[in-house]
Amino acid sequence: MKGLIFKHYLFRSLKEPVGIGIVTGMPTLLIIIMTMVFTGIAGDGTEYMHDGYNMIASSLAPMIMVMFQFFGGNVLLDYIHSDFRGDRRWRMFSMPVKSNNYVFGVLSACFLYCVIQGGVVIGISALFLKAYWGNPLVLVLTLFACSGLSQMIWMLLFLLFPKKGTVEAIGQCAIWVMLFASGYIGVVSGGNAPQVSSPVLEFLSSYGTPVSLANRAITNSGFIGGNMSDALLCLGILYAMLVALAVVVILVGKKRGFASEKSASAALAAARSQKKKSVWEKSERFWGKVENLGNIGSEPKPQDSADVTEQKELTLVTPTTRGGQFTIYKFALLRAWRNPLSLVFNAALPLALILIPGLWSGSSAIGFSFIGVAIMYGAFMAARGILNDKLDGTLIRIFTTPVTTLGYLSQNLMAAMTSLTVQILAVGIIGSSLYGWGPQFTLSLMLLYFLFAAASVAFSFAWSCMFKDRETSYAIFSVLMSVVAMLGGFFIPLQVLPSALRYIGALFPAFWASNGILALQGGDVMGGYWLSAAVIALFAVLYMVYGSKRRIV
User: Which of 477, 461, 472 lies closest to 552 in space, CA to CA?
Assistant: First the structure.
């Protein structure tokens, strides 16, 4: 039975193009783009080839491959959440399969799936980019450790938190924290991240996270690092973490379980009670009709009654009259802030970024770019309620009321902009007080962020109108926004991007937001800043027009 479950989920995962695009296509694309960028920075006169290997690709490829191995654990979450906590969970519990066997089969399939996808990334980068991956045995063991840790992390979060959105928010935040602590953000942003200045940060960037351990094991196993003993030490720590985390998952799984017998028996008892109740009510209604058979002729007819109810009392009260003109706005705002991911990108992440002084120092401070990334994802999280209403049938019910399409869309978009506006105001006020931004700089920066937020909300609205599947929309959006953020200058400075990539990046508002920030930092307010602001506003209008032309039902 375990083998059958393993085979089913392995083939199922390998047939899904979205998962393959995220775990394989996305890291491969990032390795290619970043190799092109840093090769251009190095210049034609710089020797970056050694023994037939591209040293730039060799330093970037392990980092990116390891990073996406940890994001690949989200595939496991999609399967176990839909099967154990979705609408069809009772079908799973009715099968003659123990939960432990099922979990073992799914874990094994997702583990092998991530290993295969990581192997594909390694093969492509080694074959076409001449990347060096160190000792093959150490590389394979490191890949196994990263894939296993990824599955254990997401499984533990699934057991601890009932809602999928909460698990995704915590898991992704934990991975980004590991990437930041490991120094990945500084490398990706061109070395403009704050430098290591304390023993704690130095330890984190070397041995403190699974990401840094895996990268260090791969690098030191070959001639680049040349320290096999350190590579074996990092590999041993990785497997110690894996064993410890597996023990924790087993203990938590035994305590909490996947299908609590108490809850299952309670649900069964409630169903039986409801069935008995319905049978008893039918019986009472039947005998009541029998007793009243003799009184039917003596009962007055409704038309003979003199007490006629006035027509105005039968008029239905519309939801907009009972709840006010902004009922949809209120509920959309509450729904956005109840979403853990939306709360992270619209509140926790901006506040955490603005309080890190190292991100806002120097002419190439990357804090401004990180706020742009938070705005992009926050806009999507706040505006995706339209897609949810469309898919679960709520939208059809809403349009049976006197609510117009314009009113529904405008109030949802206003709710999304409210969250982003509060975030922008907080960044401007806190930043001006902590880092001495002048009034003109602060107001100009908030205006640029506000226009970019409007364009991001409009893009998210148009995006939601294009899809009929929730998971596909989320997955493709994550891939697209990562590429847009990189080509738009949020992760890689615009100055170092090749011309061809800059032309591609100019097709999205992120590029012009970065260009406006650079102009604002350079004092070119009258030229580049206002041009960027105008282009961003034009993008917002175009996205809104496109979204309004598509059917949302």
Answer: 461
